[in-house]
Amino acid sequence: MNHFNLEGRVAIVTGGNGGIGLGMAEGMASAGATLVLAGRNAEKGAAAVSTLEALGAKASFTILDVTDEAACHALIDDTVAKHGRLNVLVNNAGTNIRKEPEDYTLDEWRFVLDTNLTSAFVCCQAAFPAMKKSGGGKIINIGSMFSLFGASFSTAYAASKGGMVQMSKAMACAWAKDNIQVNTVLPGWIDTELTQGARRDVEGLHERIEARTPAGRWGRPDEFAGIAVFLAGTGSDFVTGTVIPVDGGFAAQG
């Protein structure tokens, strides 16, 4: 058996039209999966679909506001109706508002938590019946180094990503009996639009990250292709409730 063959599998990736989400989608597409990408930006979505189709994959894009519960359920339902199954869900959509903790408004706090954490909870709930009916599934939730470490300018983001880890562990325990594996990937400092904004906002961040990361550089979105294929395939059937850093050694550095 080829544990890294995803032919016949259908995967949804929220925030899949760029960055880490697209890097994961490219990995799964190269392994034979059918991809359904979801996000806010239609232009980026069309470009992402073209990228996946160039790899020989079947791919589509759906405009999605992950803070809209009904829209999240519709995404799952429409995917199952079109493709007959849902095997993999990647909850990657996320945002950040960089402020000191005393400066957040409650609306800003709720926006970050709703976008990063509550949306993942809703999508997991929506996906559960389809996965259970088909005999199992894979849920890959995207956390962050801020699931482990603090930063003065990312209180809401850190709370959402810490919550993602604990939510994933609870779901892994609840759904193991249904052959649904739930794991969390913790990206380190990756060169994406989100972190490019952080480098503009936080003086000296780029240099500090390079010095703190044993690999001596920022990561690339395409470096998430392999972990996505592993967690989406049969090679991870006995791997659930885990937290896997992809960070160039950032978390290991004392």
Walkthrough of the structure:
This protein is of the alpha/beta class. It contains eight helices and seven strands, in the order βαβαβαβαβαβαααβ. The chain has a seven-stranded parallel sheet with strand order 3-2-1-4-5-6-7, with helices on both faces. The longest helix has 28 residues, at about 105-135. The radius of gyration is 17 Å and the shape is globular. The model has no long low-confidence stretch (mean pLDDT about 95).
Q: Please identify the top-level CATH class.
A: Alpha Beta
The fold-level CATH name is: Rossmann fold
Gross morphology is globular
Oligomeric grouping of the chains = single chain
Tally of strands = 7
CATH architecture assignment name: 3-Layer(aba) Sandwich
How many domains is the backbone divided into?
A: 1
Spatial strand arrangement across the major sheet: 3-2-1-4-5-6-7
Q: Please work out how many helical segments DSSP would assign.
A: 8
Structural class: alpha/beta
Radius of gyration: 17 Å
Distance between the termini: 40 Å
Helix content: 40-55%
> How much is the average pLDDT?
95
**Secondary-structure element string:** EHEHEHEHEHEHHHE
Largest sheet: 7 strands, parallel
How would you describe this structure in keywords?
254 residues; alpha/beta; Rossmann fold; 7-stranded parallel beta sheet; 8 helices; 45% helix
